[in-house]
Amino acid sequence: MARIAYILLCHKAPDEVIAQARRLSAAGDFVAIHHDGRAPAGEHAAIRAALAGDPGVVFARRRVKCGWGGWSLVEATLEALRAALAAFPRASHFYMLSGDCMPIKTAEYAHAFLDARDADHIECFDFFESDWIRTGIREERLIYRHPFNERRHRRLFYATLAVQRRLGLRRAIPADLRVMIGSQWWCLRRRTVEAVLDFIRARPDVVRFFRGTWIPDESFFQTLVRHLVPAAEISARTPTFLMFTDYGMPVTFYNDHYDLLLAQDFLFARKISPEAQDLKARLGTLYAARGVDFPISDEGRRLHAFLTGQGRVGRRFAPRIWETEASLGPGRELLIVTCKKWHVARRLVARMREVTGVPGVGYLFDEEAAGLPDLGGIAASLEKRNRHRRALVRMLFDHFGTDRLAICLDPAGIEAMRDFDADRARVGVLEIRCDFSDADLAGHARRVGLAGERTPDEALARLLPTIRRDIGFESDRLDGAGFAGLLRIDQRRGAAENAAPLAQFLSIPYETAGKIAATDQLFAD
Fold this sequence. Notes:
This protein is an alpha/beta fold. It contains 21 helices and 17 strands. Strands 3-2-1-4-9 form a five-stranded mixed sheet, sandwiched between helices. Helix 1 (14-26) links the parallel strand 1 and strand 2.
């Protein structure tokens, strides 16, 4: 069975450090503590005194003065790893934690998780090819030296960076290394940790290189593990649940996040608010429990993006230059059908094609399997489709050999609608308004990843009113968007009443539109 040595980096809240160490060691695991050298000596003495009699706890031999973004964090981690290796010969895994982390599964679950696969759990993404870095400098982290800490000496940090750029003082990356990047919250097997320590003893040039990089805790271990361990033995995913805002700041969890955290497919979560004492108490008790079943829904990141986007979707990003300057083509007409019930919109578009011959595609910017023809790499992923919206739709016009095309868009995609509406082509927008039961809303939440099949009913019940308000907000927002060609059909109207806006939308006779409006089971679930 797996035995975990937790590498606990901490710098504050000594009482919580003590509680964390006792909790982890009481479950049969081990803890190696590095207490920041900048923390008061009295706090360090209190932690050591409280844990002195615990054989499952050891302290790093040397306290490093840590600063965010610098080599000191890697150095502190190495000190704690060496102490753990020497003190705990039965430890099979070494798991990085901060003082703000808490378990969101039981120890029993964590051990079974690690036993299930002989692998290292660490994010390893190519430094240059991935988009892992969201904000700030990118390759400059590596190719220039950073003798000053950006947070403590901001002016000196950027001044030395500017001088190196001006003088062309780039430095070479060690030729045999492919630099990787990822979260610093990892879990490595014993033999991997031993291999890393052996490697840095043999390669002081690699240590020198990373000493001069910026934020090396996001690239040092990630690079060496990928260099030393076969790819098949790496699970390139952190076992710690953490999220970041659009501005690169970590999301903080509070007392009301207990159910959400337990439903995520991770072992620990970071970071827990110092004020969330109830949450910490419940999670602390959970870790020692046995026989707990965890219904994993894993909707946390999508749910956070949905909730934080309320009221500001469509107000944050300007149109991309390659989108605004491309055109669908003069003389063409794009017919946008928007509905929150995707199956209803797809059914209507299919019926429109049967009756009028106008080709149509499904939710091409919302779902991978949208029934698109083979258009090459531009359609390979949702990210690429959304990045090159007009180019993709222009290719669809060409593929079908038509000047009239219908597509489905989710009402949340108002920026795409605005983008197309600004095009020189003629654009019409038809909203389908539907009734939504709680079952409909729950199905929508699962379809878009806001909930999973195993999300508890009580958690789903709290989410449904927000989704219902959001659907109403998206419909109201269409009115305020100023689309000249906006029309609506409604589930609560009869076919005769819906035929009129359909006739105007498709530029067809009322009688022909009536055949579409009378489609059997058009609004059925």
